[in-house]
Write a structure and sequence with these properties.
By secondary structure, the chain is of the alpha+beta class. Helices cover 30% and strands 43% of the residues. Strands 2-1-6-5-4-3 form a six-stranded mixed β-sheet.
Length: 138
């Protein structure tokens, strides 16, 4: 039996659909994230929606025509956490500091979000960057 996703399970799905897939609507971040949104990614902490928009825009310049496919999403019983497993695809526009060669790039990731007032408030993300790097340098 397929259950209908909850509102908080829809938040990461909407984020990836609107921000990480064409037309890459960065303004959707204002609607989906809290003002003080914080993401911890690759050992770096990005604080605030404005800084997060800049970070996403820079990342998307390194992954040309980025798309994101949600593979699985589920929420904690308490309703204050949501987890998403996904795959990002695009073309190399200079990822990992490598020359932009337009080669296909793909990596998987898992993100855990804290939800506050029906918005994504904080995120911890892990992605298979090393494996993507190995494929681009082989």
């Amino acid at each position: 039996m397929h259950k209908h996703p909850s509102r908080i399970e829809q938040l990461p799905v909407e984020f990836f659909r609107r921000v990480w897939s064409p037309p890459h609507d960065l303004d959707a971040i204002d609607e989906l994230m809290t003002e003080d949104y914080t993401i911890t990614t690759g050992g770096v902490v990005v604080r605030g929606r404005a800084a997060f928009k800049q970070w996403v825009a820079a990342f998307q310049r390194r992954i040309v025509d980025a798309t994101n496919e949600t593979l699985e999403v589920f929420a904690s019983a308490s309703g204050d956490r949501v987890v998403s497993r996904w795959v990002c695809r695009g073309r190399n526009g200079g990822l990992f500091g490598l020359p932009a060669d337009d080669r296909p790039v793909e990596f998987t990731g898992i993100a855990i979000w804290r939800v506050e007032h029906d918005r994504l408030a904080e995120c911890w993300v892990e992605r298979a960057g090393f494996e993507a790097y190995q494929r681009l340098t082989s």
